[in-house]
């Protein structure tokens, strides 16, 4: 008997389940793409769905697959199988060679007219690229803090029953410590391992009293697991009162704190922080826009020709690239030039055009999840990202105050509201 929700406590991935279930019912050959960060549990999700619809689950690591040879015939009923092809490549929002090579191999084998093929990638689709029209592609975004805590509780319950430790509890705030300091993933794979390790250590080392309720503390975690593997900067938002950016990584979202130093000079722009070519181009667009529109933003017309600018982004060993930081660069540069600060941290993300338009971004859920984890409440996004925003879980949306803009001119009202008595007070910016 099929389960209406085979995802065992997960509310994410339901759309993927419903689509694969429809493909199963139709009984035809189908190709599906699923893109999302590492650690999100894409393979686990597809395996659960395969079990729920009664298909054999066959996992293939694409780099080990030779598309010039016939398809492996060592499996059982391939016609009624769900093939999960891992580590496929996405370029410009499409699977260029992956599908063609795979189909070529399929043509050399027996009947697979009823099989379902799911291609998986740890990637994000480009902001303005069309999906491959050959098949449906799903974005499988990272999990919010609430979603991770919810899933962690299902693992805790299993561990309590397995080792008869119903009296040993893992509070929500301690689960958050595990997430922030001991995992670096968008999903729950490693978090599940850590929770099992905790309960296993408690059981085998008798770190509990059977007749007494015990709450696992941060100190207990440190003693059993050691210090956290990752630094979570709790104070970063206090140093980002001129705006902070958001970035997508294969582990999920991260903050993008930008530093700008201005000195007397001749208009040179220096970069540090391992910034890629696309991000440098977005900076150039912002500078050109401000040079053309300097009077509108009350900046002296010769300012950019009498000063040098140094732009730096933290963690220089990590490569950073993409155009969605353009809006953050604009706000940071404007605030630095005019010596303005906000009363609270605000996150920005959006591509900026030479005409001052603010264009849509990718990886929206990952970016919103990271500012939620850092306790940032306000965010400014492109209006073009509104449809994708409506797909974000309501709990995450309710925890944030989001403003949508279509043009840089719309920033004036937002900036003035957030400046309060700092900087230039309540005077007009433009």
UniProtKB/TrEMBL annotation:
What EC number(s) would the UniProt record show? 3.4.21.53
Entries under InterPro entries matching the protein: Lon_proteolytic, Lon_Prtase, P-loop_NTPase, Ribosomal_Su5_D2-typ_SF, Ribsml_uS5_D2-typ_fold_subgr
Alphabetically, the GO molecular function entries are: ATP binding; ATP-dependent peptidase activity; serine-type endopeptidase activity
What sequence ranges are listed for the domain Lon proteolytic?
A: 237-418
* Class of this enzyme: hydrolase
Q: Is Protease found in the keyword set?
A: yes
Which top-rank group of organisms is this from? Bacteria
- Describe the family membership recorded for this protein in Swiss-Prot or TrEMBL: Belongs to the peptidase S16 family.
UniProt protein name: endopeptidase La
């Amino acid at each position: 008997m099929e389960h209406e929700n085979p995802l065992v406590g997960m509310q994410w991935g339901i759309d993927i389940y419903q689509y694969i279930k429809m493909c199963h019912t139709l009984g035809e050959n189908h190709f599906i793409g699923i893109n999302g960060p590492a650690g999100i549990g894409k393979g686990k999700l597809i395996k659960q769905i395969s079990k729920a619809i009664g298909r054999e689950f066959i996992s293939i690591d694409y780099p080990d697959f030779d598309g010039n040879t016939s398809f492996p015939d060592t499996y059982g009923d391939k016609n009624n199988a769900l093939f999960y092809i891992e580590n496929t490549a996405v370029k410009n929002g499409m699977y260029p060679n992956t599908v063609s090579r795979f189909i070529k191999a399929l043509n050399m084998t027996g009947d697979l007219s009823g099989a379902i093929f799911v291609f998986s990638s740890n990637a994000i689709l480009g902001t303005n690229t069309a999906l491959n029209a050959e098949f449906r592609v799903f974005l499988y975004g990272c999990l919010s803090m609430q979603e991770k805590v919810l899933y962690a509780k299902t693992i805790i319950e299993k561990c309590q029953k397995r080792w008869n430790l119903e009296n040993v509890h893992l509070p929500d705030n301690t689960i958050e410590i595990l997430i922030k300091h001991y995992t670096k993933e968008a999903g729950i794979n490693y978090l599940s391992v850590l929770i099992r390790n905790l309960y296993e250590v408690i059981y085998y080392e008798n770190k509990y009293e059977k007749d007494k309720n015990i709450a696992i503390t941060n100190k207990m975690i440190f003693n059993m697991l050691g210090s956290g593997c990752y630094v979570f900067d709790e104070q970063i938002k206090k140093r980002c009162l001129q705006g902070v950016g958001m970035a997508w990584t294969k582990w999920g979202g991260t903050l993008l704190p930008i530093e700008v130093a201005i000195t007397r000079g001749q208009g040179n722009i220096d970069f540090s922080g391992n910034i890629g070519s696309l991000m440098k181009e977005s900076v150039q667009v912002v500078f050109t826009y401000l040079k053309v529109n300097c009077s509108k933003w009350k900046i002296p017309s010769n300012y950019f020709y009498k000063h040098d600018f140094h732009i730096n982004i933290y963690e220089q060993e990590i490569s950073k690239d993409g155009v969605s930081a353009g809006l953050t660069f604009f706000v940071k540069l404007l605030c630095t030039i005019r010596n303005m600060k906000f009363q609270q941290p605000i996150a920005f993300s959006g591509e900026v055009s030479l005409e001052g338009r603010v264009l849509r971004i990718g990886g929206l859920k990952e970016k919103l999840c990271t500012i939620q984890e850092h306790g940032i409440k306000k965010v400014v996004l492109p209006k073009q990202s509104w449809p994708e925003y409506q797909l974000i879980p309501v709990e995450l949306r309710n925890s944030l105050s989001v403003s949508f803009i279509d043009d840089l001119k719309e920033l004036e009202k937002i900036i003035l509201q957030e400046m309060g008595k700092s900087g230039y007070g309540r005077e007009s910016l433009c």
